[in-house]
Write a structure and sequence with these properties.
This protein is of the alpha+beta class. It is built from 3 helices and 4 strands.
């Protein structure tokens, strides 16, 4: 077996997220950080079709961000984790979301880990 961690780090999206009136009134900047542990039967050949391609994840996250308003970061993170685990080679995923503009001196976030 061979395991690799594929990282999608710092993807910034503008989306509806939050429970407060000002968060419902306008989209806000959110960053997403995803680590997917991928398991292969052997070290993969040097071809994109031999590994989990992170393009599907980036595209899927952007579609999620455009599709609806999320009340909770927990829900957003769970949806992203489910998207990553749709590929059977992904055995574990950790997703972190961060609201960038809630406070002037801090970012607000959530992190979840899911595995098979």
């Amino acid at each position: 077996m061979a395991e690799y961690t594929i990282l999608l780090d710092g993807l910034e999206v503008v989306m509806g997220l939050g429970i407060h009136a000002h968060e419902r009134a306008a989209p806000q900047r959110v960053t997403l950080h995803v680590a997917m542990t991928c398991r292969y039967t052997a070290p993969p050949e040097d071809r994109i079709d031999a590994v989990v391609d992170y393009d599907f994840l980036r595209t899927g996250i952007r579609k999620l961000a455009e599709s609806r308003h999320f009340e909770l970061q927990e829900t957003l993170c769970d949806q992203v984790a489910a998207l990553a685990l749709a590929d059977a080679r992904v055995v574990k995923v950790t997703v972190r979301s961060m609201k960038l503009d809630v406070y002037p001196d801090a970012r607000i976030g959530c992190e979840v880990s899911r595995s098979r």
